[in-house]
Specification:
The chain has 124 residues and is mostly helical. It is built from seven helices and no strands.
Length: 124
């Protein structure tokens, strides 16, 4: 699987994260995928069903991504998973920061316990 290059500036603390909507939309465009194609691609790569309507809403910021969907989109689009989860966290944390910290920790503990610290490097 090829990786999509995204200009994110410097790595680590204090970096400016790309907006989740822009990250997904630009990666999809670089791979020349329609929203419908991405819907099928995500399922074929990850087994996660993400509707094209939901993808469209994510791209225009009408919905906030779940961590499972952010992870699946990162895998399917060849994006750096930690960066994509950090960007999703950034999009979601506007509502309830403490709840989102716990939600991200719970999600990453299931997949890879060390991932939480790597993701938080981007947002602290």
């Amino acid at each position: 699987m090829s990786t999509v290059k995204v200009d994110i500036g410097r790595k680590g603390r204090g970096m400016e994260l790309p907006r989740f909507s822009e990250l997904i939309k630009s990666a999809r465009a670089k791979k020349n995928l329609s929203v419908r194609d991405l819907e099928k691609h995500v399922f074929s790569i990850t087994g996660v069903r993400v509707s094209r309507t939901y993808i469209s809403f994510l791209e225009i910021e009408k919905r906030k991504p779940t961590y499972e969907v952010a992870f699946a989109l990162a895998e399917a689009l060849g994006l750096e998973v930690d960066l994509t989860l950090a960007s999703a966290f950034q999009a979601r944390r506007e509502h309830d920061f403490n709840r989102e910290v716990e939600g991200l920790k719970h999600f990453t503990d299931k997949k890879d316990p060390s991932r939480y610290k790597r993701v938080m490097r981007y947002v602290e």
